[in-house]
Design a protein that fits this description.
The protein has nine helices and twelve strands. With 389 residues, it is α+β, with helices and mostly antiparallel strands. Strand 1 and strand 2 form a beta hairpin. The longest helix has 15 residues.
Length: 389
């Protein structure tokens, strides 16, 4: 790992850190410092120096020297005597080369000067970098997939979150394995290419959307049609593409945050495409949006994982059957099926350009039947990390 740091080989760093995180349970009592160092190295490789310095106990002022500090610590820390373990080996074929994706995140702060004064919304932005790969669909069209490291989080919303719904309870800890997720919702250009591929189970309308634009999200797509898209894409790429599970979707959306939105306590038209006439938690915003319908993907700031458009624009289909609360929900990040209904309804997440802020929160969940189409219903795809790392 120290050698990869010296060479600034960020692809190798990401992979070494991921291997260490996978072995976290086994290493916990054997080499605990290595785990915190691996987290710092992974943050450095993603361009997230703030998290990197936090993991090694430095201040943000030390961020420029993070690389040198990590190299020094990695070379200095001795390993305990080796122990013998029985294990089975598995070979993973390396099929993709990770590449860096630059992005900008936003963080919302609410400033209150007095009890009677209107709260002011202040937005701070930060340049970051993440890693992923590009899946070519044609000579002109490709799909960008972002690496999402595995981890644990609290799924659902706390009971004191403003404007929450009861179906977001009870909050429960979920552990999610690493995966890759579409950097954006599937666009109309991407849909058109895949819709022209050989049919697997059902036909696909190449141009179903109400709000036209090659780089706008495709909408008026049912759950069944989104599954057909994934099946055709899997056949084309020889990787297993699918819809995200609900737990994966919320984990990816939150990107380590616990606030109602991934950028903070409230939402503004500077940060997402939604019905701005409605305020969230009685915090009014001055700016008004001057457009109708969906917007081009990536028009607003990304979240901490480098994903765009998870609040507003279009609802996004998930793999899961609808359940009215989280009692009995899986805790391993897998899809929750078995609703008990003959024709189950399916979860959608994220809100849309036609919804008020309450519906655009990280925890909001609603449902549609599998054949429903609407001009605010879209989706994005995921791919298991083991197929591409």
């Amino acid at each position: 790992m120290a050698e990869a740091m010296k060479q600034d080989n960020r692809i190798r760093l990401v992979r070494l850190a991921a291997i260490t995180e996978t072995l976290a349970e086994a290493l916990a009592g054997y080499q605990p410092l290595l785990l915190s160092m691996a987290e710092a190295v992974a943050a450095y490789a993603r361009g997230d120096n703030q998290t990197g310095v936090d993991r090694v106990g430095l201040s943000l002022a030390d961020a420029p020297a993070l690389k040198e500090v990590l190299i020094e610590e990695l070379e200095r820390e001795p390993f305990p005597p080796l122990q013998e373990f029985e294990f089975e080996t598995a070979q993973i074929e390396e099929t993709e080369t990770l590449q860096p994706f630059d992005y900008v995140t936003a963080n919302v702060k609410i400033q209150r000067e007095g009890k009677r004064s209107q709260p002011q919304v202040v937005i701070a932005k930060e340049q970051r970098q993440t890693w992923g790969y590009t899946e070519p669909l044609s000579e002109q069209v490709a799909l960008e997939m972002v690496e999402i490291h595995g981890g644990s989080y609290l799924m659902g919303s706390p009971e004191n979150e403003p404007e929450r719904y009861d179906d977001e309870s009870p909050q429960h800890e979920v552990t999610v394995e690493a995966f890759f997720m579409g950097r954006y919702p599937v666009t109309q250009a991407q849909w058109r290419v895949v819709a022209a591929l050989p049919q697997i189970e059902r036909s696909l309308d190449p141009d179903p959307s109400e709000f036209k634009g090659n780089d706008h999200p495709v909408e008026q797509v049912s759950w069944l049609e989104a599954k057909e898209f994934c099946a055709r894409l899997s056949q084309l790429s020889q990787k297993q593409y699918r819809l995200p599970t609900e737990a994966e979707w919320e984990y990816a959306c939150r990107a380590g945050t616990t606030t109602p939105f991934y950028f903070g306590e409230t939402i503004t038209p500077d940060l997402a495409n939604y019905v701005w006439q409605e305020s969230y938690n009685k915090i009014k915003v001055a700016k008004k949006k001057d457009f109708e319908g969906t917007t081009s993907v990536g028009s607003f700031s990304a979240n901490g994982f480098g994903l765009y458009d998870l609040h507003g624009n279009v609802w996004e289909w998930c793999e899961d059957h609808w359940h009215s609360n989280y009692k009995g929900a899986p805790t391993d990040g897998t899809a929750w099926l078995g609703s008990g209904e003959k024709e189950p309804r399916y979860v959608v997440r994220g809100g849309s350009c036609l919804n008020n802020p309450r519906y655009c929160r990280s925890a909001t969940r609603i449902n549609y039947d599998a054949g429903s189409r609407s001009f605010n219903l879209g989706f994005r795809v995921v791919c298991s990390a083991s197929r591409t790392s």
